[in-house]
Design brief:
- The protein is globular and about 60 Å long.
- With 542 residues, it is an alpha+beta fold.
- The longest helix has 21 residues.
- The N terminus is likely disordered.
- 34% of the residues lie in helices and 17% in strands.
- It starts with a strand and ends with a strand.
- The strands form five sheets. The chain has a seven-stranded antiparallel sheet. Strands 9-6-5-13-12-4-21 form a seven-stranded antiparallel sheet, with helices on one face. A three-stranded mixed sheet has the order 16-17-18, covered by helices on one side.
- Strand 17, helix 17 and strand 18 form a beta-alpha-beta unit.
Length: 542
């Protein structure tokens, strides 16, 4: 164990000077480092890591999924944000779902796949290597197979019941979820990667592969069509930002829920968290309540046509919301738009009054200071649970994040952008890049990101210690909060006395995300990387 500025870390903090990759699996991190060592930049390596994670974490993210990329171009000193989250199919309507479970899995549960277009757009605009070079490590891993880790096996076992026949033939080829040490081979996926590396976005969205995907999904009863695929374009948009303790924190704009992270930071800035003490009863109570307030605003505004983002991120608005934090637990309205309100639930605020005053995750940094923070996903474990025929690709199930409640701003409708939980972050200090960081975890992303960022900025932890520190997660409606068992029993009991319905999680629970991060030393430019033991996180520096 290695000592940090706060306690003891489960793992040593990784360092480097010529580049670093922090991601959710060691083989994907190694693939990215390989590209850096062969002369690629951070953007080349990021696409390599994205594709490799599709192979070694097929239940988490993939080429038929969605995501956001936050990019820092050191040469121009500019931040760019790439949105590759697809829209709902043109034929999708809330009233057409037979039951809620239809939108959670199966052929009707997908958004238009955006990851392929996003990866290739990133490579075309910022990369230096051809697609064949960048996809090569993932193709090798898929074609030759890789040995499963303990967590690989556990995740596949937990999600194996969601798989269709084509998927089961790949993942459950031995008649059971693969065991640690067994090889998983994905030759069809390797073939698809080759087709994409040779034919580009054209083959995926308008060519033979597009026709195969659309025909297969529609034969299963889904809505994804050639029209949906042909209409997809990744979007370069401006990030949004706030300041916290002298640092500037940037994330994707709505419909990403990243603004909840920034709003929560604004509320917490009014408290001296360091003086309160790390994970003290009072600090945790204040933190939990700020998260609940921010979540109420996320549900109300993230998917609206013109979200009042300037008001939501105003410091004055945060001060007004902060006044609602009392001594007792507030009633949380849940993670979804409620069909009926709970008695006394925390209501969304009115940011319009302040308009005139003012979401798997991985990170790559190269020797030139370029940086990428990407959060991408298939949705649930293995997405829709469906491999599309012989393509080897799991289809996402992100329509699950839409609502069936007619008056919800996030109600499913044709060709619509939905409220998106993915929220990668970049942080700057005195104009210089300080950190690339983020986490998976559905609506827990907005909670986990603030927790480990404040561990660094308020409690002076190194990035590995900040990631490993115990966390909480708010999920259901009411006053429930899930807390990792490493939090002191006395603190958990004190929170219960304030009205919090405390549920105890294991010591390191994936319910609280799987964070990765890289911090850059402002004086030496040395890199420090952290990766989450709650999953197979691994950081490699060179």
């Amino acid at each position: 164990m290695a000592f940090s500025s706060h306690g003891i870390t489960h793992r040593p903090t990784v360092t480097g000077t010529r580049g670093m990759v922090a991601c959710a699996h060691p083989l994907a991190a190694l693939s990215g480092v390989r590209i850096l060592l062969e002369g690629g930049n951070a953007f080349d390596a990021a696409v390599t890591v994205a594709a490799a994670l599709n192979v070694v974490e097929p239940y988490m993210s993939g080429i038929a999924g969605v995501g956001y990329a936050m990019l820092y171009d050191a040469k121009t000193d500019r931040v760019h944000m790439l949105d590759y989250c697809g829209r709902t199919p043109y034929e999708a309507r809330a009233e057409l779902f037979d039951k809620v479970t239809d939108k959670d899995a199966g052929p009707r549960s997908c958004l238009t796949p955006g990851a392929c277009g996003g990866w290739l757009a990133l490579l075309e605009r910022c990369g230096t290597m051809p697609p064949a070079k960048v996809f090569a490590p993932a193709i090798e891993l898929a074609e030759r197979g890789y040995a499963l880790t303990v967590k690989n096996s556990a995740f596949m076992g937990n999600s194996g019941g969601r798989l269709n026949e084509d998927a089961a033939r790949v993942i459950l080829s031995r008649g059971h979820p693969p065991l640690p040490g067994e090889l998983l081979v994905q030759k069809d996926l390797a073939h698809t990667f080759r087709r994409v590396s040779e034919g580009g976005a054209e083959v995926f969205y308008r060519g033979d592969l597009a026709r195969e995907m659309a025909a297969w999904v529609r034969a299963q009863g889904g809505w994804l069509s050639e029209r949906d695929l042909a209409a997809f374009e990744p979007e370069w948009v401006d990030p949004i930002a706030t300041t916290y303790r002298g640092y500037e924190v940037l994330c994707p704009p709505p419909p990403s829920a990243g603004f909840q992270i920034l709003e929560t930071l604004n509320m917490l800035e009014g408290y001296d968290l360091a003086e309160m003490g790390h994970h003290s009863e009072l600090a945790l109570h204040v933190f939990i309540e700020a998260v609940r307030l921010g979540n109420a605003d996320r549900i109300e505004y993230a998917a609206t046509a013109r979200p009042p983002i300037q008001g939501l991120l105003c410091k004055g608005y945060a001060a007004e919301r902060r006044k609602l934090i009392g001594d007792r637990a507030g009633v949380h309205r849940g993670e979804w738009y409620p069909e009926t309100k709970l008695p006394g639930e925390i209501a969304p605020g009115d940011p319009a009054a302040w308009l005139n005053e003012c979401t798997t995750h991985f990170d790559v940094v190269d020797a030139d200071g370029n940086a990428v923070a990407i959060t991408q996903s298939l949705g649930s474990g293995f997405g829709s649970g469906m491999i599309m025929g012989d393509t080897g690709m799991f289809l996402n199930n992100f329509i699950r994040w839409g609502d069936l409640v007619p008056h919800s701003p996030n109600c499913i409708a044709p060709h619509k952008k939905l409220d998106m939980c993915l929220s990668p972050l970049l942080a700057f200090h005195e104009g210089a890049l300080f950190s690339a960081l983020g986490t998976p975890g559905s609506w827990g992303i907005q909670q986990t990101s603030v927790q480990f960022l404040t561990h660094v900025l308020d409690y002076n932890m190194n990035i590995q210690a900040a990631i490993e520190a115990p966390r909480f997660r708010i999920e259901g409606a009411g006053t429930q909060v899930s807390i990792e068992k490493r939090m002191p029993r006395s603190v958990r009991h004190a929170l219960m006395a304030r009205g919090h319905d405390v549920k105890v999680l294991p010591d390191y629970s994936p319910v609280c995300g799987g964070a990765q991060g890289i911090v850059i030393d402002g004086e030496t430019s040395a890199l420090m990387g952290g990766a989450d033991p709650r999953r197979d996180g691994y950081a490699i520096g060179i």
